[in-house]
Amino acid sequence: MFIFEGASIKESNPGLTGTGIPTRQNGFTTGNRTLRDLIAFSLHVQPYQVTGGSPWLDDLRFDVTVLTERPEAHRKSQETPQERTRARVRQLLAARFHLQLREEKKEMPVYDLESDKATRLKPAPGCGSMSVDQTYESNLIQTLSIEIRALGVDMAQLCDTLGNILERRVVDRTGLAETYDFQLKFALGTSASGKQSEELTGASLSTALKEQLGLRLTRKEAPVSTWVIERADKPTEN
Predict the structure, then answer these.
(1) pTM: predicted TM-score of the whole model, two decimal places
(2) What pLDDT is attached to residue 10?
(3) Residue 72: pLDDT above 60?
(4) Predicted pLDDT at 121
(5) Element (H or E) spanning 152, and its range?
(6) If you average pLDDT over residues 198-213, what whole number do you get?
């Protein structure tokens, strides 16, 4: 285990599944995450936006706990608890992995998430939570069935989840400022190699969003920030 001023990181036990990266008011705890996952979380981007690095970045997995200052210490700050947590994770990665990144802009496909006039979303009280269930059905083209269940979730959180599924940036253009309860079910087609078919992905998901939630995806090309890993060392003991 490696300790860094209120933070710890250790290699995960083999065979465990990911536990997500939940944020808390004073930090977060996560398990079985690659360094690429952690970099993406710290920058609030998708893993596909983090390129380069040695193969071990996607092989080794880590359990991480990060504690930030108590909320009272930042009452006058404009940063949200999530922003403070992400900044703390960036400090941890720089200290433990000697991480160095270079930002680049690339023209890439992106999606705008927009609202139809007949949106089916209704505001809901409560804290935000979202779960994603995925199951495969085998045939000539694999079908990945996905169900998103959301309680008190805002559109920014939905965009993050859709972006992770599509491996494309999804930008909130809905103008919807409340939190919502909803379920979304759709299917993705994949090739024999396991790669998602973008045509099937976009069409299937777009149809589900329109019919079930009254939302739509509009595809376009736009400059997207990507981060190239220039240095990342395996962590060592203090």
Answers:
(1) 0.69
(2) 86
(3) no
(4) 86
(5) strand 142-153
(6) 74
Task: Among 51-55, 73-77, 129-133, 220-224, name the one with the lowest average pLDDT.
Answer: 73-77
Residue 236's pLDDT band (cuts 50, 70, 90): low
Question: Please, is 220 exposed, middle or buried when counting C-beta atoms within 10 Å of its C-beta (0-12, 13-18, 19+)?
Answer: exposed
- H/E stretch holding 57: helix 56-59
β-partners of residue 64 are 9, 30
Q: Where are the domains of the chain?
A: 2-97, 105-223
Could you write out the three-class secondary structure of 86-144? HHHHHHHHHHHHCCEEEEEEEEEEEEEEEECCCCCCCECCCCCEEEEEEEEECCCCEEE
Specify which residues 23 forms β-bridges with: 28
Return left, alpha or beta for 213; rule: phi > 0 is left, psi -120 to 50 is alpha, else beta: alpha
Cα–Cα nearest to 39, from 18, 58, 19:
58
Residue 149 phi, psi (nearest 5): -115, 125
Show Cβ contacts of residue 134 under 8 Å, excluding neighbours closer than 6 positions.
144, 145, 146
Q: Scanning the structure block, which residue is given the tokens 């200290």?
A: 95
